[in-house]
Structures are given as structure tokens and as C-alpha cells.
Amino acid sequence: MTIRGDTIKKLITLSILGVVILGVVMLSGCIDGGNNTTSETATPIVELINCKGQGAMPQLLSTGELDAVIAWQPKPALLETEGVGKVITYSGDLPPEGKWKNHPCCVMVVSEDALENKNYAVHEFVKLIVLATKEMEKNKTLAIEASAYWLGVEREVEEKSIPHIKFSSDPKLIENGVLDFVEVMRKQGALSGRLNTTDKEKAMNTLFNFEIYNEVVKEIENNLTGNPPSEIPTLRIAHLPSDHHAALSVAATYPELFKNKYGLYLKEIEPKERYELYSQDKKIADIELILVSEGGAKIMTLMAQNQIDVGFNGVPPAVFSIDKGTKGKIVCALNSEGSAVVVRKDVPANNWDEFITWIKEQHKEGKMVKIGHPLPVSIQYVMIKSALEYENITYTE
Q1: Which residues of the chain fall below pLDDT 50?
Q2: Rounded distance between C-alpha atoms, residue 167 and residue 182, angstroms
Q3: Which of 114, 163, 307, 360 registers the highest number of CB atoms within 10 A of its CB?
Q4: Residue 41: which of 56, 29, 55, 54 has the closest Cα?
Q5: What are the pLDDT digits (tens) for 67-93?
Q6: Which residues, including other chains, have CB under 8 Å from residue 123's CB and lie 6 or more apart?
Q7: C-beta neighbour count of 370 within 10 angstroms
Q8: Domain-by-domain residue ranges, the chain?
């Protein structure tokens, strides 16, 4: 049988095309094949589990339902102290190297309504938090003791936890780190509103209010005080069960320190719930503290519903909520770093690299490693996804 020349050309073309297609298929199925591997194109070898907070993590690790968790302090310290798990890496050391060093964690977000209608009270409360942060910088024991009392944990837990948290109130120090989170979240498809932009100046102006912090620092440096209005507002302040918010617990636990040294202090009315804010012995605000165990996303939901004025929570929940239209601004920082990856105590890994190796070994045996995180759009969630993607570890949720 004679084959025509044009037929031969077609057969050659189809053969080449077949080889190309086969190569693409082989590459797309290669788990360790480089940066083109994604959770959508390759077989998942890790399952990310939403723990809906951190309360269930000890039980889930103990029963083997989870192999590891990423959590904010003091949960990692508590898991180690109770013998449930072991820390293999702190958040500042997650890959890629240097990316998460000094990463911003928790911030103070104030509703735009409170900034407008309760400005003086907000101003003085921010000042108190700045002063509390300064006192903690000089004496970490304040943070250890106040956090142990507020969180109801043993002092030993806070002695393990506090050294891995970096406290700072200056919002300018976290500006670039917050914008990095915005970019990571945008690339992960979490942003679709006001912050779905590559314009960093626009994102910064949407997220931050630097004016109050700058005024507060100037007043502290020059020992200045303002004139409070006659009306005494109520500030509704939501916070998490975390020593990341030690500035708040220190201010509430040691009123005499701040009264004697600065004339600005909280008077306890009902422990851990109701206080009065005084400046130079004049009452300037009633303070209601609201403990939110579900996570920062819940705090920002409360702000969107106008149920709180101030939120102490992580950067991603603030970014996500403000992106969706919540009218609030980051007015000061609270801390950087302060999270860790903890594996179940029987997992044969003592550092991140060994953990990645173990994940791959488990996959070869047909087992999927399960990693718990507090909530989607938490800092911990953003970082663990980024670290796994860097290692070309595919995941499902």
C-alpha cells in the first residue's frame, strides 16, 4: 500500500503532538515536579482541616484525628506542656526563608463610627495600649503573669509562650508586612473587593489610620493631655483568648502602675468584663470587654454589625472584612510572629524539613496527612498554605 506524502506529514504531526501531550500529563502528575504543581492539578497529599477555633485542637491531636496543627500562642506552648504535641517550627521560620520573619500578627482595628463619634475615648485607650506595650518591652514578667491570669493557664505555659511573641504598637513597622499579606491573600483568591488591587498606596489608605498613633506618641513624648468631652461614651472592645493581646491584659491587671506613672488607667468594675477608663482621675469612658473564642473573623463580623467599636484580632481577618466593606481602620499594631506548627507527639519529625519528608513518606503508603488550622482567612491558614505551596505539597480542604 502506498502512503501519500501529505498523509505521512499528518502522521508525523500527530505523533509529535502525542508525545507533547504525554509529557504534559506526566509533568502535571509529578508531585515533586516544581512550581507548576498545584492543589488543583495534582493528587492532594495533605488535608487542611478547619478547626473552627483552637479549642478542639488538643483532643483532635490526642485521638489521632489530626497529625499537626498551626496555631497562635499560647496554644502551641499549652500542647507541649500537656504532652500532646511538639513544636517543629515557629511562624517566623516558615518557608520560604525570611518571608515570615517578623510578620505582623495581631492589630487593633477601630470602627470608623467610633473614630468619628468616640474619638477622644479611642485616642486615650490607644495611648494606654501603647504605654502597656512599652512596659512589657522593659519587663516581660508583666506579660507572663497577666496572660496566665487572664487565660487561666499555668505560669509555665506563658513562660514558654511569651518569648516567641514580639510586642510592638507602631503601625508603620507592620505596614509592609500587612501589604504582603494583602498580596498573598489576593493571589489565593480571598480578596474581591476594595483590596483586590496591586496599588499599594490605595490598599494602605483603605486599611490604615496612622493619625491617632502619631498623636499619641507625640503626647507621650511631651507629657501632654487633652480635654475630655462632657459625654462619657462606652467603648465595646472584642479580643481573643490569646497572649498576643497581652497589652490589654497588662493594662487591666496593673492599674496602679499606669495610674502612678502616667495618670491613665483602667478601674475594674467586673473582672475581665467591665472597666472604667480614667485620665488624670477623670472618667472618660466605660469599657466593655468581649471575649471571642471563635477567631478574628467573628470579631470583624461583630464590627460590621456595629456591635463593637474596637477589635483585637489578626491581620487577615481585618483585611478580608475591610475588603468586603466593613468600615474600620487599623490604628496600631499589637505583635508580630507568635504562632507555631505543632505535630502529634508520636510523629517522627522534629523540624519542618523532617515533617515535609514524613508527609511524602505517608503519601507513598497511601495515607493523607491532616493539618488543622484555626479558621480560613486566619494568619495561620494563610501561612501554612503558602509554606506547603513553596514545598510543592498539594492539599485539599
Answers
A1: 1-41
A2: 22
A3: 114
A4: 29
A5: 999 999 999 999 999 999 999 999 999
A6: 212, 215, 216, 226
A7: 17
A8: 46-99+339-396, 106-337
